[in-house]
Amino acid sequence: EKDYYAVNFGNFSINKEVPNENYLLTPYRDRLTEFIAPHCTGLSGNGCFGYCTGLTKVVLSQEFSSFASRSFLNCSALIDLTPMTFYNVKDLPIGCFAGCSNLPGGLSFTKCTSSGGSMFESCTSIDNISLPELKNISEATFSGCSNLKTLELSPGVRYIGTGAFRNCTSLPGDFFRTLLDEDIEQLGSGNYSSGTKECFMGC
């Protein structure tokens, strides 16, 4: 069975046959407004939608399982992402949603156990994220998420990278107290004292 994606460039659109799974869309980044691919289960190619600053809507398969590095880097207009709950994504690569400053809250990754650096860096609108299996939080993962009020993580967090929560000014103190009660093996690049400063600067 053939799969199709619909891509809208402002006032006109195209439909093209694509493979059932991983593929890359690169042309017309400056005019891309929507990517509608309800059968797409994976993205490939570093920065495949990077700097698509007019991209407002993305529809992917409910069975989606793999993002590419910097998939939506600086897609600052992205406000509509379907699905909002990803059941099959186990790894979120570096910079996946970095700079998506209008990305709404409510994102959930039920099986994700690891994150690349800067995964949600500067997602200034997002207010809640669920990552109930995430145990290793890489550098700058949530840096600059100034509106983030609710964050669900694994109760067994082991590593927090430098700047992971930099300027997360809306997360409550109880969140950080609970997080630091875990058996964390490493904070930032230094010892516990200096690492705490590195990871939570501006909070």
Describe this structure in words.
- This protein is mainly β.
- Helices cover 8% and strands 23% of the residues.
- It contains two helices and 14 strands.
- It has a five-stranded mixed beta sheet, with no helix packed on it. It has a four-stranded parallel beta sheet with strand order 6-8-10-12, with no helix packed on it.
- A hairpin with a 2-residue loop joins strand 1 (3-9) and strand 2.
- It is globular.
Which labels suit this protein?
disordered N terminus, 203 residues, four-stranded parallel beta sheet, five-stranded mixed beta sheet, mainly beta, single chain, 2 helices, globular
Order of helices and strands: EEEEEEEEEEEEEHEH
Weakly predicted, low-confidence segments: 1-5, 9-24
Shape descriptor reads globular
Residue share in β-strands: 15-25%
Number of contiguous helices: 2
Helix content: under 10%
Q: What structural category do the secondary elements indicate? A: mainly beta
Distance between the termini: 51 Å
Task: Please report the total strand number as a whole number.
Answer: 14
Biggest sheet: strand arrangement = 2-1-3-4-5
- How would you sum up the major sheet? 5 strands, mixed
Average pLDDT taken over every residue? 83
Question: What radius of gyration results from the CA coordinates?
Answer: 17 Å
In a few lines, what is going on in this structure?
The chain is mostly beta strands and 203 residues long. The protein contains two helices and 14 strands, in the order βββββββββββββαβα.
